[in-house]
Amino acid sequence: MKARDARNSRVARTGDEKPELPGVWRAYGALLQYLRKRSGMNQQQLGDAIGYSLEQVASVEQGRRPAKAAFTVAADRVLNADGALEALQDEVDRAKLPRFFRNFALFEAEAVSRFSYDPLLVPGLLQTEAYARALFAGHCPPLNEEIIDQHTEARLSRQKLLSRMPLAELSFIIGEEALRNPVGDRELMREQWQHLLDVGALRNVEIQVMPAACGFHSGLNGPFVVLETGEHQHLGYIESQEVGCVVHDPAEVSASGLRYGKLRSQALNSTESARLIERLVGET
Prior knowledge:
alpha/beta, two-stranded antiparallel ribbon, 12 helices, 8 strands, 15% strand, Lambda_DNA-bd_dom_sf, DUF5753, Cro/C1-type_HTH, Helix-turn-helix transcriptional regulator
């Protein structure tokens, strides 16, 4: 049974009813089944040909489990699909994201510029797999392992934006507290810090650190993103406690842009930020 929460237009579920599976998983599964039958193969034969079990193939065809990229590449090749399955992979991955984030993810994937301020955590686009998995594993209430896997895969898939052509202009301001917060053990954090240095060396990426001793600044109200779409529309995004909001109002987006410009002037520059991160790596 479903009830509508008028305050945030979410569908609230009651009882023990299972959540509805994303439609794109079912569409992908139906296409996979059609291509398999067209090739004269049963599920076991397809699984043997691409290195997956009968149960895995059946689950994907029924839309109960999303296909991973490796599954799609192999199935597309074996079934002579001419890229039909691969064309759906980004949508399949996007549906693995938490529901509240999916609308913004559509804009993010096509962004020509994206500027973000993250005071407490390393932003998702810059996270290592281990760091992302540790965050999802610590979710409250707890997530099952399958959901943790799906959310982690989806977050890593978003990182295509870092190298997508044409290149997007990307700027990140990260609070020093986020870098020093031990999300995992020292080795996990060392890997994360080194990853920040590697990504920060890309010519379309700028990473700045907001020092913990900066005092009052305009980012103390929380994280936010300012984004420009391929159609040169400017959007904002704010998120807290699994509630996300895409901001379309030009005045509000403009205010966020002004705040971000102020934050850039108050944060360490990219060279100073890299030196701080290098010191953290050296301390491990």
